[in-house]
Design brief:
Shape: globular
Structural class: alpha+beta
CATH superfamily: TusA-like domain
Number of helices: 3
Number of strands: 4
Radius of gyration: 12 Å
Order of helices and strands: HEHEHEE
Largest sheet: 4 strands, mixed
Distance between the termini: 28 Å
């Protein structure tokens, strides 16, 4: 399975355990309607303009982004401090390292 795809079973599991977390953020990125790898690429670009410790909120509609942002955070050292799912929208909160 590539980093841009997610099996339906994994997607449903992720949705079940994603709560709504109120997280304060410094910058907002709208990645709705974008498919892999664009949400991650736009996130990388947005993080370059931010200082360490600041939080970026990303809103995406690509179901694969659930797994993609978990992997992205682990690989880059940026902390995934929160995530939520409502209907077909996903929000991710990344703290820049």
């Amino acid at each position: 399975m590539s980093g841009c795809t997610m099996a339906r079973k994994e997607f449903e599991f992720a949705l079940k355990f994603m709560g709504t977390l109120p997280v304060e953020y410094d910058k907002d990125l709208d990645a709705r309607g974008l498919n892999c790898p664009l949400p991650i690429l736009r996130t990388k670009r947005a993080l370059t303009d931010m200082q360490a410790g600041q939080v970026l909120r990303i809103t995406a509609t690509d179901p694969g982004s659930v797994k993609d942002f978990q992997v992205f955070a682990k690989q880059t050292g940026n902390e995934l401090v929160g995530q939520s799912a409502e209907s077909k929208e996903f929000q991710f909160f990344l703290r820049k390292r």
